[in-house]
Specification:
This protein is an alpha+beta fold. Helix 1 runs antiparallel to helix 2.
């Protein structure tokens, strides 16, 4: 498959992941956020900021894919950033971060687990001061491979 075809596959993947993520997040906003804010022991404005951050990441993913599809240099840079946000997930001392826009295949390991992850779709989990104090770290191999491909293409572009 040619370079342009792979770039288009990545662009499509990022746009679809962004759309699915935005949809899931809007369902959360309209379906569960109000109830969660009522029950929250933390500042409700903080929860809203977390949701806005998740929305921003999915908008980034969609915009990166769209601009990459249009063969914009900005699309390449945004795609690199979008993939970086998806490579690692972790849970440390009550702080958790997971962001997937599209696909996840990788591993999670920590103090109490080691497991293989396979996920199709988009998901996010960002939390602070949760009662879960376990330690885990995960890696999304798909995002890592896409990032390596994009960096390799960018390097070839600048060395010509």
């Amino acid at each position: 498959m040619s370079k342009n075809n792979w770039n288009n596959v990545i662009a499509f993947y990022e746009m679809i992941g962004g759309i699915i993520g935005l949809g899931i997040t809007f369902v959360f906003i309209f379906g569960g956020l109000a109830k969660l804010i009522e029950q929250a022991t933390t500042n409700s404005a903080f929860l809203v900021l977390i949701v806005i951050f998740a929305l921003a990441l999915y908008i980034l993913s969609f915009a990166a894919g769209f601009l990459l599809w249009k063969k914009s240099g900005k699309g390449f840079i945004l795609s690199i950033i979008a993939q970086i946000t998806q490579i690692f997930s972790f849970s440390i001392a009550g702080f958790s971060y997971l962001f997937v826009s599209g696909l996840q295949f990788g591993f999670v390991f920590g103090s109490e687990l080691f497991k293989l992850l396979l996920y199709m779709g988009s998901t996010w989990n960002i939390s602070f001061a949760s009662k879960n104090s376990s330690f885990s770290i995960g890696i999304n191999l798909i995002a890592l491979f896409v990032l390596f491909y994009l960096l390799k293409q960018r390097q070839k572009k600048f060395t010509k």
